[in-house]
Amino acid sequence: MTSAGVPVRPHTDGGLTRARRDFRAWRRTRPFWAGLLVLLAAAPIIYFPYFNLSLGALSVAMSTTAGAGSLVIGLTLIVLGGLLWFQPIIRFFAGCVSVFLGVLSLPISNFGGFFLGTLLAATGGLLALAWGPVDGLPENMSDGAERPSTTVAPEGGPGNE
């Protein structure tokens, strides 16, 4: 009995190792960090207009007329963050809208969640705009195809008329 066709593995991967590897592969096929920042931007934008602080008998309420606008902006950012994770094809639209909503939250939602929500939304939106899917095979994998030559013809050589 021979084992020539069986790959050599000293042990099988555990469930946690496999899950981590699968998550890493999934994360690299989409603008993961952009979606995470856009999701995190929604928290201060939604939270601060409804914030109540009690200091003994003194109650400080941050409730303003901007509560409904902050809720709409925050929920839209949550939806956009999820779409960046699960529909990366719309990254350009979601990135533009995230930056727009982050800037729009400045006058509507207590300076954009005290600038924290604005910075997170703008950074996440710009990361979404900058992200692009990987094209082709990595450089270290050979597929047998010829790669373009990087040599330059000497001056006056063929093709330089």
The outline comes out as: flat
How would you spell out the order of helices and strands?
HHEEHHHH
The assigned structural class equals mainly alpha
The N- and C-terminal alpha carbons lie at a distance of: 67 Å
Outline the low-pLDDT stretches. Answer: none
* Biggest sheet features: 2 strands, antiparallel
Rounded Rg:
25 Å
Helix content: 40-55%
Kindly state the mean pLDDT as a whole number? 81
Give the tally of β-strands: 2
Strand order of the largest sheet: 1-2
Counted by DSSP, the helix tally is 6
Strand content: under 5%
Written description of the protein model:
The protein has 161 residues and is mainly alpha-helical. A two-stranded antiparallel sheet has the order 1-2. The protein has 6 helices and 2 strands, in the order ααββαααα. The radius of gyration is 25 Å and the shape is flat. The termini are far apart.
